[in-house]
Amino acid sequence: MPIYAYKCGSCGHAKDVLQKISDAALTVCPACGAEAFSKQLTAAGFQLKGSGWYATDFKNTGSQSAPASSPAASSDSTPAAAAPAPAPASANS
Questions:
Q1: Which residues make Cβ contacts (< 8 Å) with residue 37, sequence separation at least 6?
Q2: Distance CA 10, CA 27 (A)
Q3: What are 16-43's pLDDT values in tens digits?
Q4: What are the start-end ranges of the E strands in 13-61?
């Protein structure tokens, strides 16, 4: 269940309330009883870090080039694309 931040427009009382999404919003301030209790807009309480699915599955796919500092690229002096392809094996041997 999400936690909603409420604040009274009359007395300034603030409170965090654990509610279901389907629950009705609170309107009566528990401190002064005024009908000025309203939800506040707050930032998300979590941050995505690491290399999880959100970093790999929804990444911008505009440029899919290999990194220039890869070990395979720096160990060979001849690029892999310039090497000739092996001839297919003959079936009549």
A1: 6, 7, 8, 9, 13, 26, 27, 28, 29, 30
A2: 12
A3: 999 998 999 999 999 999 999 999 988 8
A4: 14-18, 37-39
Structure tokens at 48: 């995505």
Do residues 7 and 14 touch, judged by C-beta distance below 8 A? yes
> In 6-37, which positions are buried (b, 16+ CB within 10 angstroms) versus exposed (e)?
bebeeeebeeebeeeeeeeeeeebeeeeeebb
pLDDT at 76 over 90: no
CA–CA distance, 5 with 30 (Å, rounded to integer):
14
Whole-structure pTM value: 0.48
Tens digit of each residue's pLDDT (9 = 90 or more) over 54-67: 656 666 655 555 55
